[in-house]
Q: What sequence folds into this?
């Protein structure tokens, strides 16, 4: 992201919200519900409060580094080695996330509409446009993403409200689900739902006005929390079986029961179309971010050619997963703990230590 | 720069022409056979007998728009080991791919339903072509006979016939519009148990009015296939089939279904007959609607459920008698009392039937109890679905009768 490519606060907020909603569509609520059962809504409230507090703390920690991202701060703290380690970890994280998202969505599409089409063909349908778009630049991606996020947010709201007639309020009971410990102690791991924080750590240098970082971070976290809460409680109240059946696309199940009178039935195709756009937008931004981090740690002049290699890597990696069971394991276990360790523990430690180092330096200077 | 643009343009054109041509794995109408209903029976030579009612597609241009399906439909049956193997056999036989995306009804024979249907329900729910709003009908006869006797007289398109005929519950209350997703959800629920539409073949020559039943009870006393009616249409859906998990355990007649709808707040409107308070041999007809939802509550007294239901109905008197003035307050009050007592008696009878005889909570009373438990384990240990058979009921009907 060169110095000319800056984005406004709405674009930045929409990127953060899009990342969460894309994951909501790709079965994030089901991952939470499987772990915490009927108390998932309570668990989401709990992890949302923790996420907001975490966000406030992060903003405070980023304040002394007004135009730096997590990689720059790592360099400040531990020199080039730490910078390279953190950079590579984030690159691997984003590549892994992209490959899971694209494979999960392509497999779902294959199952629903393109039974006879080869998976590679469907993957390419996503990756080729991303290849073209990722070279254009962050400004164009973020502006298009803003439009897509508005449509995506609206479509999710339509799903949630159109299924309201199927709500059975009592299905939120037993209020503590699988137990107090599962809801509040083990359940804290569900904070991985806010994996969009990984993107937040790279946002400051590309903002028009870095002073608005706090506003963007807080508003996007709150919006993400609201969407997560609505989708989880909606699924619990509509499907009594959702706690113990491992659905592939739980939000898609909601779209299948939507009907507006006798005339508008089977509207799921419209939502699938919107989700295709959001997946494209998600992949475009993520690939751009990966090349940006790569450029930062290697200091190469032109990172555009990197995109070809990157797209190939994501393509091959997404084909590596043998079946849905492996994909679900990677999503529910590997991605979950990777997010917690990298985004919520390692990055936090780096930020705290960097702040301490900065304070000490000021102290020494004085 | 121009060469770059040209190359990009060529790449885009090639990409679009390949991906948007639609030729790859294309399936047209001529390669598909649309099933409007599926019948599942116990097989003669194999585990299952699977029947499909296929829509025969007509020429849409000649019919002047609307649906392209002709009046005709055809039924194909096959003995098979599972639903999927049956579909494959039929695919091969008719040389077309069976498509379930327009399937409106799943008919399961009573004989098979008594043995358990979860395997078939899970298979069908797992099929993405199946619509969740497809109806579940338990047939008192063979499912294949049910399909073969599907001869709509007032509707030309068989798919629409299934759609419309099951909507009649909205103005008769004699059955419920039970869908595949409802049945599946109830089957996996810990607060309720499933039920389905009861269907059958009505051979009117064999049926006659039962003289042992009072005239006001007669209308609602029939089950599917029992109504003394003469018509070319021989299929009849009346009453409900009650399930314990996935096994059929009993049937409810028309009036019991009406009571069920009142309790679960799915009642829209119906015409019922009550005994006349003025003449022991006469009846009064009422057009019932519900001004507000039924209020149900469950109290656990020493572990025994005590269920209270407050039902609210509004009735319009549709019958007339030259010697009686239904507009006086005194007479209306008397009819109200009779209506309350008549409905309370029928609702109690329905509730005790489900509780003591069938031992199945199909009215989802469990949802009023689940809030008393803090964790899932506590709730599962309480075993509500078993405990329901110990229930006692109190029903209060508050009617408001008007002379229209």
A:
């Amino acid at each position: 992201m060169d110095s000319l490519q800056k984005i406004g606060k709405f674009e930045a907020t929409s990127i953060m919200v899009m990342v969460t909603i894309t994951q909501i569509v790709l079965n994030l609520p089901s991952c939470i519900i499987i772990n915490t059962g009927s108390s998932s809504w309570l668990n989401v409230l709990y992890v949302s409060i923790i996420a907001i507090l975490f966000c406030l703390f992060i903003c405070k920690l980023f304040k002394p580094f007004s135009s730096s991202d997590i990689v720059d701060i790592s360099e400040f703290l531990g020199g080039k080695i730490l910078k390279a380690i953190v950079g590579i970890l984030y690159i691997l994280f984003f590549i892994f996330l992209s490959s899971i998202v694209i494979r999960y969505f392509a497999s779902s599409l294959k199952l629903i509409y393109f039974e006879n089409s080869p998976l590679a063909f469907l993957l390419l349908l996503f990756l080729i446009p991303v290849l073209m778009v990722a070279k254009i630049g962050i400004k164009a991606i973020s502006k298009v993403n803003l439009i897509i996020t508005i449509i995506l947010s609206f479509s999710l709201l339509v799903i949630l409200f159109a299924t309201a007639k199927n709500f059975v309020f009592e299905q939120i009971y037993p209020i503590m689900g699988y137990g107090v410990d599962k809801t509040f102690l083990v359940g804290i791991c569900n904070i991985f739902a806010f994996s969009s924080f990984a993107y937040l750590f790279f946002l400051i240098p590309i903002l028009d006005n870095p002073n608005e970082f706090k506003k963007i971070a807080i508003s996007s976290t709150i919006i993400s929390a609201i969407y997560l809460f609505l989708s989880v409680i909606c699924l619990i109240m509509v499907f009594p079986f959702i706690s113990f059946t491992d659905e592939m696309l739980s939000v898609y199940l909601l779209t299948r029961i939507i009907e507006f009178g006798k005339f508008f039935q089977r509207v799921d195709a419209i939502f699938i179309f919107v989700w295709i756009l959001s997946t494209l937008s998600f992949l475009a931004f993520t690939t751009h971010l990966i090349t940006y981090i790569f450029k930062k740690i290697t200091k190469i002049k032109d990172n555009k050619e990197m995109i070809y290699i990157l797209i190939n890597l994501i393509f091959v990696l997404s084909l590596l997963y043998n079946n849905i069971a492996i994909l679900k394991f990677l999503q529910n276990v590997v991605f979950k703990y990777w997010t917690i360790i990298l985004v919520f523990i390692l990055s936090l430690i780096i930020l705290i230590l960097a702040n301490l180092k900065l304070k000490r330096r000021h102290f020494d200077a004085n | 720069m121009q060469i770059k643009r040209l190359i990009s343009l060529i790449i885009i054109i090639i990409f679009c022409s390949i991906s948007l041509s639609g030729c790859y794995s294309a399936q047209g109408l001529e390669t598909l056979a649309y099933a409007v209903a599926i019948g599942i029976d116990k097989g003669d030579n194999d585990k299952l007998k699977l029947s499909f009612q296929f829509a025969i597609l007509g020429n849409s241009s000649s019919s002047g728009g609307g649906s392209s399906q002709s009046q005709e439909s055809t039924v194909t049956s096959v003995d098979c080991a599972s639903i999927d193997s049956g579909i494959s056999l039929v695919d091969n036989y008719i040389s077309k791919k069976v498509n379930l995306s327009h399937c409106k009804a799943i008919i399961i024979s009573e004989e098979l339903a008594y043995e358990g249907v979860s395997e078939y329900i899970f298979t069908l729910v797992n099929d993405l072509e199946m619509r969740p709003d497809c109806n579940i009908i338990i047939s008192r006869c063979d499912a294949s006979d049910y399909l073969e006797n599907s001869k709509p007289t007032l509707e030309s398109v068989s798919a629409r016939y299934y759609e419309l005929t099951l909507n009649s519950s909205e103005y008769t209350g004699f059955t419920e519009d039970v869908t595949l997703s409802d049945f599946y959800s109830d089957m996996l629920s810990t607060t309720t148990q499933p039920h389905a539409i009861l269907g059958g073949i009505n051979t009117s020559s064999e049926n006659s009015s039962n003289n042992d039943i009072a005239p006001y009870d007669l209308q609602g006393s029939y089950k599917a296939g029992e109504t003394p009616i003469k018509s070319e249409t021989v299929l009849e859906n009346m009453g409900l089939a009650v399930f314990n998990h996935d096994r059929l355990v009993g049937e409810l007649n028309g009036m019991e279904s009406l009571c069920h709808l009142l309790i679960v707040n799915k009642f829209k409107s119906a015409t019922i007959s009550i005994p006349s308070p003025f003449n022991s041999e006469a009846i009064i007809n009422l057009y019932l609607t519900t001004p507000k939802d039924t209020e149900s509550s469950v109290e656990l007294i020493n572990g025994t459920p005590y269920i209270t239901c407050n039902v609210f109905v509004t009735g319009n008197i549709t019958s007339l008698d030259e010697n009686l003035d239904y507009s006086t307050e005194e007479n209306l009050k008397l009819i109200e009392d009779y209506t309350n007592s008549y409905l309370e008696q029928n609702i109690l009878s329905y509730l005790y039937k489900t509780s003591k005889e069938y031992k199945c909570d199909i009215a989802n009373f469990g949802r009023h109890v689940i809030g008393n438990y803090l964790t899932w384990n506590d709730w599962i240990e309480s075993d509500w679905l078993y405990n329901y058979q110990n229930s006692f009921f109190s029903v209060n009907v508050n009617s408001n009768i008007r002379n229209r």
